[in-house]
Design goal:
single chain; mainly alpha; two-stranded antiparallel sheet; 384 residues; 14 helices; 68% helix
Length: 384
């Protein structure tokens, strides 16, 4: 018996659609509080010692958290090669800006402490803010564009053509989605700082976090209303072959008002995703207000997961719709790797994800507890 036939092709495609969602949630939840803490750095911390407290709260874990981003990119490359090709070429400049910001973050961590000058350190503090704000904003903007459709097409030979521009991505709805992303990560970062710091830093972070939680609820609700009433969705109008070849041009697709809410009507259980988004943000607000950092952090993570998963629930089976040639839209059923490749990668993933979760959990357990301001003053026990 050939092992990969143990799972049907359509089952493997669906599993990999779920796994991409899990990896994206893993990145947003783990690296999200790193980015949120960076955005809060110039505001929650007012002097050098306080800012070193914030930096050292994420210093031991930020590198490990970025593993989820690498896993996500690798998984898209292996499981959804057409999605990888279209998104990484069409969004090339946006990806470049995100990667530049993420590269500057470790540079700022290392170079900030090289000189005692207040101006020198202040500049690197704003670099850390930039390296948190820009990825959060642009990732949200990218999601907003995906929901509206991306201007790409294929020729009969399956060559990709992208007819958009970087500044074309910055439309009002996409910017709104970007602000949702920024608000939810600031909320998450504030919950992390409440957990890991004490005194004025924790109190300032708590205040900013409550504002961010309220903004997350309001902006997410506004985006949902616009998606249901003003943003047209996509619908497959031909017969769906879930085990067919990976050729998007073999189907027909039509624009349809309210298509992105159709899954919720057809499968009411999917409403759990947006509900988790609202409940999580409100739970984070409650946890911050009551000074319950664990509650705030877990609720913020739930809210982030719900918001991200609600995008997938709305769009399924679409992964990347095309605004200029709807037929070219990429779906779960026509843009994956081969049956054998998906099975092999599933086995690899089943081995490595538990290992990553295990060592990440061990690191968090070992480094549990608040950052000691006195230890920073004594130059002992902290890297930054």
């Amino acid at each position: 018996m050939i092992l990969h036939t143990l799972l049907d092709y359509d089952t493997l495609r669906f599993i990999w659609w779920l796994l991409i969602g899990v990896l994206l949630v893993g990145f947003a939840v783990t690296d999200g509080f790193d980015l949120g803490s960076g955005m809060l750095l110039p505001f929650a911390a007012r002097n050098d010692i306080e800012r070193r407290v914030v930096i050292n709260s994420v210093g031991p874990v930020w590198e490990g958290n970025q593993v989820w981003l690498i896993l996500g990119g690798g998984a898209i490359f292996a499981a959804w090669p057409q999605l990888y090709a279209v998104s990484f070429s069409g969004f090339y400049l946006a990806m470049f800006v995100i990667l530049t910001a993420l590269i500057l973050r470790p540079v700022a961590f290392k170079f900030r402490s090289k000189r005692e000058s207040a101006q020198w350190r202040a500049r690197w503090d704003w670099v850390l803010f930039f390296s948190g704000f820009v990825p959060a904003l642009i990732c949200g903007v990218a999601v907003g564009n995906v929901l509206q459709g991306v201007p790409f097409r294929f020729n009969p030979d399956m060559h990709i053509f992208y007819d958009g521009s970087f500044f074309g991505l910055l439309n009002p709805f996409a910017i709104l989605c970007g602000l949702v992303s920024v608000a939810m990560l600031v909320m998450h970062g504030a919950a992390w700082l409440l957990l890991k710091t004490a005194g004025p830093v924790a109190e300032r972070a708590r205040t900013y976090g409550m504002v961010a939680a309220v903004l997350t609820v309001v902006l997410y609700a506004l985006a949902g209303v616009l998606l249901a009433t003003s943003i047209g969705g996509f619908r497959i109008s031909s017969v769906i072959d879930a085990t067919g070849p990976s050729n998007p041009l073999l189907k027909t697709v039509e624009l349809h008002a309210g298509a992105w809410t159709a899954n919720y009507a057809a499968h009411p259980w999917t409403l759990a995703a947006p509900a988790a988004g609202f409940v999580g943000a409100l739970g984070a607000l409650l946890g911050l207000a009551l000074r319950r950092p664990v509650l705030a952090l877990l609720a913020a993570a739930l809210g982030i997961a719900g918001i991200i998963l609600s995008v997938g629930a709305s769009m399924f089976p679409f992964i990347l719709p095309s605004s200029i040639d709807p037929r070219a839209s990429l779906t779960v059923w026509d843009s994956s790797s081969s049956h054998l490749t998906l099975f092999i990668m599933l086995v690899v993933t089943a081995v490595f994800i538990p290992l990553i979760v295990a060592y990440t959990s061990w690191v968090y357990r070992v480094l549990w507890g608040k950052v000691d301001e006195q230890a920073i003053r004594d130059e002992s026990g902290h890297a930054y």
